[in-house]
Amino acid sequence: MSAARGFVPDPPVRVKEYKIGCIGAGMIMAECHLAAYRQAGFPVVAIASRTQQRAEAVAARWEIPAVHATPSALIADANVDIIDIAFPPDQQPALIREALAQPHIKAILAQKPLALTLDEAKALRDEAASAGKILSVNQNMRYDQSMRVLKQILDRGELGTVVVGTIEMRAIPHWQDFLEDYDRLTLANMSVHHLDVLRFLFGDPDAITTVARPDPRTKFAHTDGITVSTLTFPNGVLALSMEDVWTGPREEDFDSDIYIKWRVEGTQGVAQGTIGWPNGSPSTLSYASKRATDGKWVTPAWDTMWFPHAFIGVMEQLQYALKSGEVPALSVADNVRTVALVEAGYRSIAEARTVRLSEISVD
Which of 106, 165, 174, 295 has the highest Cβ tally under 10 A? Predict the structure, then answer.
């Protein structure tokens, strides 16, 4: 049905010639990046991680020919064109800078959050520009199939003028151990998906109000466990992003009803759906439009999923930017604006007020 209505839930693979070196061998690399790259035919030529043993195990699973003892050794490998980083954000900037200094490295794919502070993110943006290298940030929710089809519906004007949009998450993330050492939790590491995709759908907001409380399940000290952010946009759109990482006492064998739901309402139609990540299923979308469906609900379908298939699009847009000379779809300059939105959310929590994005400099 997606094809029948002209929707493209997964972008085509236009370029797959650049050799990738992967830094990191944890779940996101082993289960998502490398699974996607195998399916797309992207050449992965080397891997390194914090422990060589872990890197060797992942290399054997995915038939990666070279294992380096350290990330620095991988970055120095002249056979690598693109560095793909899946490392803690406090360690990521140093790796990016090492890669920018190597003449043979053509581009870098970084994880989000790009850095722990907005100032660091801006510095990395500027250093990449000075080096003449592409730095892209893995905001993979923009390649979730429901989000891409929703964006196509919005761009066609099939919902009319957007009035309100919501993302409601009731799911339990696996917090990596390194997060215990940071003073920021959900907003920087989970809400960043939703805040970024709201920018993708509606443009840059002009204000954000975020409230938060600790999550009873998360044992280490934190402030932003459960978060709710409302955003206003210059075009009048009101949006809400809620991250309920508690969802109830699941340790006591409660029946699961975890989910991520979204809904967008316009003057000419409504779209709603789910993100399949918490349950390991494809995301969904249904919409009804006075302009396009005579007010009847239509449900485009696809077999691919956010994890791992979105990671094909993320790496492909970087390879295409290298080949074509065009700005990558996930450019670091654009991502700095997402980091600024997260920063504004934290300021809103700290000062218990609405924060205008004009207060946060991205220059």
Answer: 165
Q: Assess whether 189 and 111 both reside in one domain.
A: no
24's torsion region: left (phi>0), alpha (psi -120 to 50) or beta? Answer: left
- Residue 228, pLDDT score: 98
Q: Are 24 and 55 in contact (CB under 8 A)?
A: no
* 122 and 146 inside one domain: no
Tokens of 140: 């993979």
Tell me whether residue 194 is in a domain.
yes
**How many C-beta neighbours within 10 Å does residue 257 have?**
9
Final residue belonging to a domain, choices 123, 138, 153: 138
pTM of the model: 0.97
Task: Annotate 211-278 with DSSP letters as a single string.
Answer: EEE--TT--S--S-SEEEEEEE-TTS-EEEEEEES--S-GGG-PPP--EEEEEEEESSEEEEEE--GG
Task: Determine the pLDDT at residue 4.
Answer: 59
> How many residues in the chain?
363
Domain that holds residue 220: 141-311+339-356
Question: What's the domain count of the chain?
Answer: 2
DSSP letters of 47-82? EE-SSHHHHHHHHHHHT-SEE-SSHHHHHT-TT-SE
Among 140, 120, 144, 167, residue whose Cα is nearest residue 336: 120
Residues of the chain with pLDDT under 50: none
